[in-house]
Design goal:
mainly alpha; 0% strand; extended
Length: 175
């Protein structure tokens, strides 16, 4: 009897493992490697966590600084300068996001059409990686530029307002 229960349990567990996948439903995506939210974020120039190295180490991003301008007690010239950075960041990042969507789509099409070769795979993934790197650098450089506009008290308040008060971001002084 014990052997039958163990066999039944194994069959049940194995059957469930094959029936479910964390990727279930993704096969209907337009670009398989990107969710609809990621596509929207890339098209709108949002960071998608690409600048976490800066954000979590005391280099605020322009978008969140503008959202917190009153609480950070930004001066009018700071608001103006951060707004210019934010607009520049969007202007630089949106074309890269669109390019990344196109490159991921091309890679997807190569697999879908069974036209992928080792050479085309290498070229396509290298192109995606270059664009991802350029996009990440774009977001990171605007965090760097934004931090340079703030005083240490504003950076500390930013970290506190964003919930980073116990990490390195709360203790950084960039000016």
């Amino acid at each position: 009897m014990k052997r039958i229960l163990i066999t039944a349990a194994l069959l049940f567990a194995t059957g469930n493992a094959f029936a479910e996948s964390p990727y279930q439903g993704m096969q209907s995506r337009t670009v398989k490697a990107l969710s609809e939210q990621q596509v929207a974020d890339l098209n709108q120039g949002r960071g998608m966590g690409m600048a976490l190295a800066a954000e979590l180490n005391g280099y605020p991003g322009p978008s969140h600084v503008l959202e917190l301008a009153d609480k950070l007690e930004l001066k009018p010239d700071q608001i103006s300068a951060v707004r210019i950075l934010f607009e520049s960041m969007k202007r630089d990042s949106i074309p890269l996001g669109v390019k990344l969507i196109e490159q991921e789509g091309e890679l997807d099409r190569q697999f879908a059409s069974r036209a992928v070769t080792p050479e085309s795979l290498r070229a396509a993934t290298a192109a995606v990686a270059r664009t991802q790197g350029e996009l990440r650098e774009t977001h990171l450089k605007y965090h760097l530029s934004t931090a340079a506009l703030l005083d240490s008290g504003q950076i500390h308040r930013y970290a506190s307002l964003r919930g980073y008060e116990s990490g390195p971001a709360a203790h950084q002084h960039h000016k």
